Amino acid sequence: MTYREQAEELRLSLAMGLIEKADVIRWADAIVLAEANPPTWIFDVSLASNEPPGAVANRLRDVADGIDVTVPAQKALERLARAFRSGKLAPLEAAQKLILWANSAQLPCETRAEAFDVMFIAEDVADGIYGSLADVSSAIERFLTRHEAAWRTG
Questions:
Q1: Could you tell me how far CA 42 lies from the centroid of its own chain?
Q2: Which of 75, 87, 100, 147 is the most exposed place for a label (fewest CB within 10 A)?
Q3: Which pLDDT band, with edges at 50, 70 and 90, does 76 fall under?
Q4: Mean pLDDT computed over 68-79
Q5: DSSP letter (8 states) at residue 106
Q6: Does pLDDT of 63 surpass 90?
Q7: Which of 113, 106, 27 is nearest to 68 (CA)?
Q8: In the chain, how long is the greatest CA-to-CA distance?
Q9: b/e per residue, 38-55, with b = 16+ CB within 10 A?
Q10: Residue 33 burial (CB < 10 Å; 0-12/13-18/19+)?
């Protein structure tokens, strides 16, 4: 991935709360140290440690303007999948992060709608209306599996 694509993946991961602002700053600092002529925008990110996470996310969003965001969206979803499958995220928390991803990434309407279907199941479970945490887990896993398969063949 290019630095701009990496910036978009980090923006999405930051929006989901899967990484911290400090992770983004470390990434930018590493590029500044490794490159003889780093892109000028990386300095803005590197020096943003006193800014709130939302401002850092906005800087990353601006960097990604005009790129194909498909791969960064996939990579951010893969990060979510790893956290969920490793047990670091409970089903309801994973469903909330999936919606943050769907609302933050540039996605086809169908993909966004499928993510919201997962959230509707999670809300029903959280409100005690219908279903169980196992239903939420299954819905998340179906979503992840479907999109992983589509990206491998796509």
A1: 20
A2: 87
A3: very high
A4: 91
A5: -
A6: no
A7: 106
A8: 58
A9: bbebbebbbebeebebee
A10: exposed
* Token pair belonging to 6: 């990496």
What is the distance between the alpha carbons of residues 15 and 136, in angstroms, rounded to a whole number? 21
Q: How far is CA 16 from CA 47, 73, 95, 130, in A?
A: 22, 12, 10, 26
Q: Are 7 and 69 in contact (CB under 8 A)?
A: no
Q: What is the pLDDT of residue 153?
A: 62
Task: Take residue 119 and report the two structure tokens written for it.
Answer: 């959230």
Amino acid at the residue 57:
A
Query: For residue 8, what are its two tokens?
Result: 């978009």
Kindly give, in sequence order, each residue whose CB lies less than 8 Å from that of residue 48, ignoring residues fewer than 6 positions away: 21, 24, 25, 28, 55, 56, 59
How far is Cα 61 from Cα 2, in angstroms, rounded to an integer? 14
CA distance 114 to 111: 5
The model's pTM is: 0.90
